[in-house]
Amino acid sequence: MTAAPVLRDSSQPIFRDRREAGRVLAGLLEHYRDHPGVVVLGLARGGMPVAWEVAAALHARLDTLVVRKLGAPGRPEFAIGAVAPDGRIVVNDDAVRGLHVTAEQIRSVAREEAAELARREHTYRGDRPPAPIAGRTVILVDDGLATGATMFAAVEAIRAGEPGRIVVAVPAAPESTCREFDALVDEMVCATMPSPFLAVGESFWDFTQVGDEEVRQLLTTPTADAPPTATGTDPAAVIDAAAIEAPEGVPPHDVLDEFIGDARFVLIGESSHGTHEFYTARAAITRWLISEKGFTAVAAEADWPDTYLVDRFVRGIDDSSPTLALRGFERFPTWMWRNTVVRDFVGWLRLHNDYQRRVGAPQAGFYGLDLYSMHRSMRHVIDYLRQVDPAAAQRAERRYACFDRTSDHDGQAYGFGAAFGAGHSCQAEVVRQLVDLQRNAPAHRQAGDGEASFDALRNAWTVRNAEAYYRAMFGDRVSSWNLRDEHMADTLDALAAHLGRDGTPARVVVWAHNSHIGDARATEMGAEGQLSLGQLVRERHGTDCRTIGFTTSHGTVTAAGEWEGEAECKVVRPALRSSVEELLHDTGRAGFLIRTDTAGAATELLREPRLERAIGVIYQPTTERHSHYFHARPADRYDAIIHIDRTTALRPLEPPHRWTAASTPDTFPSGL
To answer: How far apart are alpha carbons 575 and 571 in whole angstroms?
Structure first.
């Protein structure tokens, strides 16, 4: 049995539509390409778009096979068997016994379905005879299997025609069904075996019903020497016509000026947490935004207390060095912020602020938006209160001591215990501490300073939201994700309000992964209720927000092989077919920007669902399709996309012994 790596325990759609599923299957059936005597039979109707893509890729003849499901009396959606074109009836004995279906009921349903089968065969084929199958390799294709009753009838009908070999190929099916067919046919190809398996349609982003007319058109569209997609304007040419050159990922300043306008929030993404060019381009754009457009803050996908030392350094409060300023980033993955690009940017920001301070102009700070710092944030709150209100510090210590009894400074361990009743919940304590701190903030500001008070409040909010996040981790995945991005959006708003307290609206640059700065409503995750920072900022601030996503086709990346693993320099595989990265690569350009906030052919093209790659701190190339790709509408997800075709790995400040600055060969990815 042939099976691609499987995404387990997920109900997310895997394929954009039946066409894409067919192209995936074609890759698994590549060994039949250009073989004489191969016939691809698509089970009508849903299997036909899948089968056409398979036949086109293999340069094989395409035909259809009409098999009708026998639905249970009173429950027609539940298959108890199927009827084949030769009148052969196959029944599921277990289902028949379980539902107490009589032989007469089976015959009655079979007569009705046989009549519909004959009608469809005539509609699709007319007077044209079926493709000969005797002695040939027959590849039976459907859009998926559930019980397998329909496909089983198809196999039995084809077997009667004495083919040389029978292959069954489907995009999705339960593992048990795939293994059952593996014992019945010469080769069984299951592209995915989702678990739990709910329904065939759950594996598709677009599962629009296939009509009779579409089946007729597919049967009359040549597959031999046909391109794997519909003909028409070359999509890469459409993108190329709208592309704006962006050497090393940095568009011309006049283009940026027009694009950003008066927006107060510019969210700049990355499709990996370990790509040098994403970091350097983002830093270059940010330097321009700060020096030329008056932006006064960088808010990063980093923990609030970890950026504390950086902010003090760039503002001239601490006189250490850029490298020492990054020492707060101790948690995995350290390379995400402790790298040469961030070090150089921090050094530049210090020099910029030194000049601003001399001329009496506003300085720019560096802040964190994330919430993984639960225990470090507790320490910051207590340390602050010891300076301004010792009695309040003692109250905070008593409340936060709740975590000492349950987690031993391990947020996930605390969350597990609290979620499943194996430990004490500290929810009430962290809320009381936050309320206490907020109530006494005016007095604390008089005893200390406004910046320190704001820092303590944000740390208290981080503790409160982190506690909820860690409890949610062991429940609904979407809920925990949403808690995190809502925290980032709330922190961003609080930061903007704090920086703009003198009446001048603050302008903030956000550094975060594409998965956060992109609009989740334009992704398959959004269909499950997942939110994102970019979506929330758009909803709250409208045209005051601009989002820029980054993509790449191939190269190298700094990533680990597992959580808490050592950083490695890994080769990034060439972008998959049907992905936005492949489309942008096909322009032949090294680096360019595409604006998707304006009308045009390129925007409409990028509004179609496509695969998009996301590499976080872990990269698993052997399961890349399922580990790192998802479906999205790029034009609705970002206001602009910067594509850098070939990228290299981000260099950590302290490269581990397994990290080497390897580069891809000049012939990569062709290998020629």
So the answer is: 12
